[in-house]
Amino acid sequence: MRQVFDREALINLAIFAALVVTAVVAHVAGQGFTVTLATKAAIFALAGVGLNLALGYGGMISFGHAAFFGIGGYVAGILASHAASGAPLVASFAGTTSMLAIWPVAMIASGIAALLIGALSLRTSGVYFIMVTLAFAQMIFYFAISWPRYGGEDGLSFYVRNTFPGLNTFAPIQYFAICATLLALALILTAIITQSRYGLALQAVRQNSQRSTAAGIRPYAIRLTAFVLSGMITGLAGALYADLNRFVSPSMLSWHMSGEIMVFVILGGVGRLCGPVAGAAIFILLEHLLGGVSEHWQALLGLMLLVIVLFAPGGLIGMLSGRKRHA
Amino acid sequence: MPEPVLEIESLSKSFGALKATDDVSLTLRGGEIHALIGPNGAGKSTLIKQITGELRPDSGSIRFQGRAIDILDAAGRARLGLARSFQVSSVIPDFTVRQNVMLAVAGASGHVFRVLRPAQSDAKLTAPADHHIAKAGLHERAQARAAELSHGERRKLEIAMALALKPRAFLLDEPMAGMGAEGGGQVTAMLSALKAEAPILLVEHDMDAVFALADRISVLVYGRIIASGSVDEIRRDPEVRRSYLGDDA
């Protein structure tokens, strides 16, 4: 049996602690910008944790998770902009600036989108699944571009960050605390799910769907459930990202975004609990350190990705834990 | 004569102009091994897939334990206790032996959507799993990854998974395939053990094994059952000799 604190679990804790320590030290040193970078890393990590559930544990290579990220973002933006202008959104409801209301709406909206997209795309597999998820995300992307009411191509700004009871969300360290807490909750949820009876079925279906069926398990229902959960987590990340920037635009829905979320997962380690956290942190670090030197910093990222895929398919976590992933 | 457990009635399935299953009727009774033999391309796998629910027949019906199962999907039929093994031994490679069997226990229970308790400490999964692993003679390998098992051990794992489904009938697709001479002996012993649990519909190429093990034999040629009867009747049947066994059998 697996010990509770084996090497990989310690690495997971260390990675999460490093993120928190970075933010706290930067805060004490008065480096608000670095705190914001750490917040961005936590949000991207959360988006990756969502995708990891579908991609890593369920074997569903979704190239359309920007759809959920963007929908979460637009939910936050639309609710906040209505609250600011006072224009009614539905009937006499004029939006809200409370995060506690925005998050559930964002998760439900992206969950419904994931249910519809998943229900159709899970009828295919392999490269077709990748293409169908991409196609759905692109449809939503073009819809956002051509919808002038909420900014169309220019995106939608809202000038005041949404509120959380008892906290000043404008203080970078406090907003970081919110995002890091949600990330931790998502990680705990993922750990519980993947160790459970359902998690056993999900990972069995990924490896051998015919065998799982013969054992009395319905792969489609198992996969679809994971896909919806995955979309909801990534949608929550989208809402947080919109609040971080106080701005949403169609770029959150573009296939570049889908690719980036996938990069977080692959860099850190597919199907590793804290893989997306490590992956997102490296991504942000590279973007910050190298982005100032050259705008072609992504070439180096590409090279890193290539090396990881070829020589360390377990990603960073796989390298550190020195162990093959086991179910 | 024992009650039929599995009754197949006038099953037909075509792929375009090819009649892969042509008005096949077949029964499996309690306590027996009923072997299904036939040359390559006779439609044995197509027939098995219709019984498991992986393929929908064009017409005909299947009753299992007295109940029509035509509308059930493959997972639903498995939960009723229709246990199958695969031509190529098929397990979850990255799972341990124990996890593989726990999966089958979970599937058979029908309660797969449980997330609150870690599977490893769920006695409702681990206790039956350990029992079936011991019964299949794999208890020393319970923590081994399935991918690392030898061929014979994998077959045993498949048996343990089939047992976990609380089988009411086994569908075994060429269990001897890929086994050496001594492995074949092991499987023969295992089949006798399985027969004590539930009747077996056995698809097998190895004629010696079929003649040694089967209580009844049906011969499938071009999607049709051309003969059905005891081992001796099949040996003597002139049509079977001509079309399948060859005159020297």
Task: Please give a structural write-up.
The complex is a heterodimer of chains A (327) and B (249). Chain A has a two-stranded antiparallel ribbon. The mean pLDDT of chain A is 92. Chain A has helices at 7-28, 32-57, 66-85, 99-121, 127-145, 172-195, 197-207, 209-214, 219-245, 255-268, 275-291, 297-311, 315-321; strands at residues 156-157, 247-248. Chain A is built from 13 helices and two strands; from the N terminus they run H-H-H-H-H-E-H-H-H-H-E-H-H-H-H. In chain A, helix 4 crosses helix 5. Chain A has 327 residues and is mostly helical. With 249 residues, chain B is α/β, with parallel strands linked by helices. Chain B has two domains: 1-81 and 167-249, 3-Layer(aba) Sandwich (Rossmann fold); 93-165, no CATH class. Chain B is built from nine helices and ten strands. In chain B, helix 3 runs parallel beside helix 5, helix 4 (123-135) crosses helix 5 and helix 5 packs parallel to helix 6 (181-197). Chain B starts with a strand and ends with a helix.
Uncertain runs of chain B with pLDDT below 50, 5 residues or more? Answer: none
- Name the beta content range of chain A: under 5%
Oligomer: heterodimer
**Shape call of chain B:** globular
Helix-strand pattern of chain A: HHHHHEHHHHEHHHH
What is the averaged pLDDT score of chain B? 87
Which residue ranges of chain A are poorly predicted, with pLDDT under 50 across at least 5 consecutive positions? none
Transmembrane segments (chain A): 9-29, 35-55, 67-94, 100-120, 127-145, 173-193, 220-241, 261-286, 298-320
GO molecular function (chain A): branched-chain amino acid transmembrane transporter activity
Main location (chain A): membrane
Organism (chain A): Paracoccus aurantiacus
